[in-house]
Amino acid sequence: MLALVYFIILAVIAVGAALCVLLSKHPLYGALSLIVSMLSLAGIYGLLGSPFIGVVQVMVYAGAIMMLLTFVIMVLNSAKDGNTPRFDKVSLFVFPAVIALAGLLGFALVSVPFGFNAEAVRGSVAFTSSTLFNVEEGSRGYFILFEAIGVLLLSAMAAAILMAKRRIGYTASEKEEN
Amino acid sequence: MTNLPLWLIPLFPLIGTIALAAISLASSGSKKGPSEGLTGGLAVLFPALAFVAVVAFAANMPVEGIQQTLCNWMDIGSFRADIGFLFDPLSRIMLLFVTGIGTLIAIYSLGYMHGDRGFARFFAYINLFLFSMIVLVLSDSLLLTFLGWEGVGLCSYLLIGFWNADLNNCKAANKAFIVNRVGDIGFILGMLCLAMVSGDLLNYAGLNAFLKDAANVEVIKLLLPIFSLAGILFFVGCTGKSAQIPLLTWLPDAMAGPTPVSALIHAATMVTSGVYLMARLSNLFVLIPGVMTIVVFVGLLTAFWAAIAGLFQNDIKKVLAYSTISQLGYMFMAAGVAAFDASIFHVFTHAFFKAALFLGAGAVIHSLAGEQDMRRMGGLLKKTPVTACVMIFAFFAIIGFPGFAGFWSKDLILERLYTFGDVGPIYYGIALLTAIITAIYMGRLIILTFFGKFRGGEELEKHVHEAPASMLVPMVVLAVGAVFSGYMWADMLGMTCFRDMLAPVVGSAQEAFRAAEVHVNPMMLACLGTAAAVIGMVIAWIAYGGNKHIPAPRVAYPSDGVQATTWTLFFDYVHAIFILLVNVLAWIVDKCVNQLVMFVQWIIGAIAVLLGDFASGFQVRKVRLQLCLSLVGVVVLTALVFIYGGII
Amino acid sequence: MLLHILVLAPFVAALLVALAGGKGVAASKIAIFFSAIFAALSVVLIAGGDLNAAPIDWFKLPGSEASVKYWLASNTLSAWMVFLSTVLTLVALISARSTIKCEYKNFAIGMLVLLGTLNGSFLSMDAVLFFFFFEAMVIPAAVLIASYGGANRKSAAMNFAIYTLVGSAPMCIALWYLVASSGVTTAADLFNYVQTMDPGMQSCIAIAFLIAFLVKTPIFPFHGWQAATYAEAPAALSAILTGAMSKVGVYGILVWVLAIFNLSEKTLAVMLVLGLVTAVYGALMALRGQDVKKILAFSSMGHLGLAVAGIFTFSPKMLPAVLVLLVGHGLSAGALFFLSGTAERMTGSRELSAMGGLTKVAPVFSFLFGAAGVLALAVPGTAGFVGEFLVLMSLWDVGPIPTLVGGFCLILSAGYMLRMIQGVLFGKRETAIVEEARISPLEGSAIGVLLALILVFGFHPAFIYEVRSTVVDTAVEQAAPAAEESAELNDEEVKALIDKMLAEEEAAAEKTDAAEQATAEPAVETAPVAAEPVAATATAEEAK
Amino acid sequence: MELQAIYVQILALVLFSIGILTAISRRNMFFVLMGVELALNAVNLSFIGFSKTFAGDLSVAGQIVPLFTIAVAAAEACVGLAMVILIFRNQESVDTDNYSGMKG
């Protein structure tokens, strides 16, 4: 019962913040409300017995990604597009389409019965992490994926640096020539 | 001597070709050109060496001939052809006069081509021609003969178009090659015909054996259609090469080439290769009397037709060209009545007197600085006595004046015609009539050129001079041949060594065909022949002799192309129709079929482009709308999945 | 190893050329050096007989069990085709030195890549690998045309690329279907599988294959791209296109269609007619051409039409005939294209009307051009003659009418070739030529070697078919005993011949039966080699 | 009235719809990015919600996938933002409708 109450509160915050993202004028406000939405989602993860994911959500999403986004928005201050409307003719197509999709999917969800597994809902960090980092024979080998993700992040970082730096190097060499 | 390899004979001119081509190419950059002494020496040396080799072989030839296989040419399992040479009586005679006259004409050309920019090139072609001609007559299989056959055609093309700055010459050369090509296709198809029935055998020994076998088997009738087809096809090849009806138009145009070329290729050697082929395949032709009749008719018609045409020519070389065609017609008549030895004999004597005539004409042209129109000549007897004597001797030979070479050979042909079955006398009549016309137009030529007054204007008259010695010597030698070569086979005098020589090759076939000989008095026929010659001469003297007024040419010198259409008597028009047909076909293909294909292609392309535009009409060029549409697509897909998945 | 070098090393060489510095001189040296090595290796390949490299698994085709292999092997046919492509590339690279001055490096890269794909398609044993190279070669060719061609190069390149790629699209699908349903990829295995297929499906697939090759060759209704492409492409590339790339089409018909499928009588007849129509069509179009390179394009189309017609006679003489014809045509058409490039360079135009009189001003060039033109005429003593004579002989086995048509083409070929020689070389020249564009000694001697090769093969074609290996040979060898018997002349033979003729009517009636037998027979035999079914058909014909 | 699994899924669906709406209907580049992040989050939630309906070992898999999703989203954001900076420097605009250099 208590779980349901918490869930409703968190869900309302999440949906409200998401709507704020949709409706806000300035991207900075949008970013801040997105953070709120993500934090409340992290709470729901914890509520569902996955505290590990919740923590990662807070650290990576709310912490790193959104901070990066906010930072970029602030750097490119002129990003506020005051002259463009929030919604235009395209939205007229998008809204019905999305609502139709949601309706279809919702109908499908409702029509299939499923329920929580009591043991799984309790969950534990130890269980999750031991599965994730199980290097013994016969394991599912998630650790390899984990390493691969590390490499992916590294390469993404390198790519980002290259893309940003090329321009700088270019202007620098131009200056030298001048 | 006989253990020398036979391939030495063609090898000499081949070396000459390569050496001269190299000299020609190497000196192409320099202004002066190669030294004429060296080039000319090489040019004469190699044909002379070939002649010497031929003589050496000829002297020591065993009766059955020499057959040597050099190497394999094609061997693809079911079909095999070798490069092999056959030196038998027939090729001996052909080779002797081919290399002999070739050498003489090479010497003559030294003087004639003096100072020409393409001196080395000319002799390279001449050597190449000799090589091809030697291969033609020396080969032991049809396929290798065909190599020479096309090779001489190619050299003829190169030499007719020798002065290639003038496009008229090139056109004449192209005409010669293409008309010859038509004949060559006949040759190829004939070979295929024979190969089919003989089990892919194309060498003469095998073929002859096969044909004799086939003749002995009773069921020859079944094979006859194929043999007839092969015979006709080979004869088409012969008409192309030997300028018979209907493929005769190229030879008058071929006079565009230098005069020694006309003498060597278009009078003495190449054009007689058709007759040679008939003799070679005598075993085939005697099996098919129907085709032989065609051959006789074509020969008669050509001889008569060309003689008439010769009457109307004003160009000295063209008269000789038509006379060549006419004489070739005689040879085919003889071949058509299975008198192959007589036809080869006429080839032999004709080579001498016609070469002498051409060389004489060349000397005349040379002395008149390129003037070829007989109406501008006259009275040259005193100014160029040697040339005139040579030409007059040759003239007597060609009209068949008793004692001269032509008399013996032509008389022989006439006799053989007369004695050929029931229709013989009719053949004989036409041939005799042709002989009279021959005497008329040849007499006209001699009278217009050497008698009367000079009509070429004073300017030219001063220029007239006798040809240099290098030109005169070969002419004189040939004139001697024109007088005495007939005594190789003077039936009435009992000299038959020529016939005896050829007997191993063509004798059996001939006897098989001419079983029922009618016996006549040869003296009577000889008298009739002589009478024809005399009558012709008299008519010519009456018509053109004395100092009759000869109408001056209206234009200075009409180009070759115009003249050719005036008096090849309608065969040029026949050719023109064929060419027109091909052109119309090409036009249809180009303008209709090709355009149709292109149109279809264009339509398909246009449809593709239209479809593409139609499809890109969906492309909204706005990323968001695009995404939105794809979202709608997702909705539809999901709905479909649900509906068919039974969820809804 | 040799096979791998011939296929892969051109790409490596292209890379090396790309890395070479300098203003093209170094690049040209490297490129010519490597292509000379490839040419030498191709001779080694011919001399070495059959080679078969170990197959390497490459990838699995989606939706099938079949694993596509990187598997190279050579037989005489493919070895000679490789010889053509390498030799022509060598001469093209030499010839392009004076034609393409500034951008030589990129040109050489393109040519070497093209060489690699050509060799790959000739040498691959695996159908998918073959198709990969078959498609891949379009790209460098189209890029080269678009960058180095004449005035309309862009549209010509587009036309070429789209036409050939669309043409092979049906083959792509058919190949996928075939491989996916059979699970095997080599010709021999596919042949075995095809026997079990439904005849309708089989002929559908066969026609899809055929169309791709007909477009590439090109054969009559599919030739729309050819003339413009050959005319616009740089001369050196045109030579490769006609000398080597068009041969892929013929090679494909031989190895990837005839060796796999049992074509119906009707299809064979249609193909024979198409080949002949192409021959006549090409000759007639060449007769009307005004553009030297277009004349050459149509002329080579005509010759290839004759080759295809020869193939579909199924005569026992067919394989050596076509092989010699292809080699001879590759050399002579290649030489003519190179020389037409030189002529274009000297006179600045491709039109016949703008040329003429070159023999006075450029004797060496004229000698080469005249010689090449004459050698292309199938004068006896050239490889072209041997090929065309044997093809006519094969046609004769089918009937006199096809032979007559073939002969007609020979006459026409004399017509247009002489017209072209006259137009380019003879007559008087009014305008001066570009002096520095004269033929260079290296270029001239390279082309001279090509011409000499034509003569050598003409007098001794055994060079070409003697090294014939087991693969191509089987056809001939099976047919040989029968033919040898018939070569012996005796009464029996004559009698047999007569019996044959008497029984002609019967035979005509039986012909269909025999044909069915002919197609059925290969099903019984296991086909260890590519040309086996061809051979079997031939033997059946012979036996009949 | 216990917490039902279906509630979680409905929440995820709602968030996903809002995310998609933001990503497509907003023209500002940053909103597009944020919309995508929101949608990704919703998917993560859905994963976890479903994973909790299975027992034992199976449930772990559903939790680990969101982990990787988050990591990939981080990489995506990293590169995506760098691109936004680049494009912004060239175009001086964050309006996606202006980014039409590849218009066909």
Question: Structural class given helices, strands, pairing of chain D?
Answer: mainly alpha
The helix content of chain C is: over 70%
The Rg value of chain D, from CA coordinates, equals: 17 Å
What fold name stands as the CATH topology of chain D? Helix Hairpins
| Tally of contiguous helical segments of chain D | 3
Shape of chain C: globular
**How far apart are the first and last residues' alpha carbons of chain D, in Å?**
56 Å
Task: Report the CATH C-level class of chain D.
Answer: Mainly Alpha
- Major sheet of chain D: size, sense and barrel closure? none
Give the overall pLDDT of chain C as a whole number: 79
Strand fraction of chain C:
under 5%
Order of helices and strands of chain D: HHH
Keywords:
heterotetramer; A: 178 residues; mainly alpha; Four Helix Bundle (Hemerythrin (Met), subunit A); 2 domains; C: 544 residues; two-stranded antiparallel sheet; 24 helices; 4 strands; 76% helix
Provide a descriptive summary of the structure in words:
By secondary structure, chain A is mainly alpha-helical. Chain A has helices at residues 2-23, 27-47, 51-75, 89-111, 118-122, 125-132, 142-177. Chain A starts with a helix and ends with a helix. Chain B is mainly alpha-helical and 648 residues long. In chain B, the strands form 2 sheets. Chain B has a two-stranded antiparallel sheet with strand order 1-2. A two-stranded antiparallel ribbon of chain B has the order 3-4. The radius of gyration of chain B is 31 Å and the shape is globular. Chain B starts with 7 loop residues before the first helix and ends with a helix. Residues 554-565 of chain B have low confidence and may be disordered. Chain C is an all-alpha fold. Among the domains of chain C are: 274-468, no CATH class; 481-543, no CATH class. In chain C, strands 1-4 form a two-stranded antiparallel sheet. Chain C has a two-stranded antiparallel ribbon with strand order 2-3. In chain C, strand 2 (56-60) and strand 3 (67-70) form a beta hairpin. Residues 469-495 and 504-544 of chain C have low confidence and may be disordered. By secondary structure, chain D is mostly helical. Chain D has a single domain, classed as Helix Hairpins, CATH 1.10.287.3510. Helix content of chain D is 76%, strand content 0%. Chain D has 3 helices and no strands. Chain D starts with a helix and ends in a 13-residue tail after the last helix. Classes of the chains: A mainly alpha (178), B mainly alpha (648), C mainly alpha (544), D mainly alpha (104). The B-D interface holds B 616, 619, 621-624, 627-628, 631 and D 20, 23-25, 27, 96-97, 99-100, 103-104.
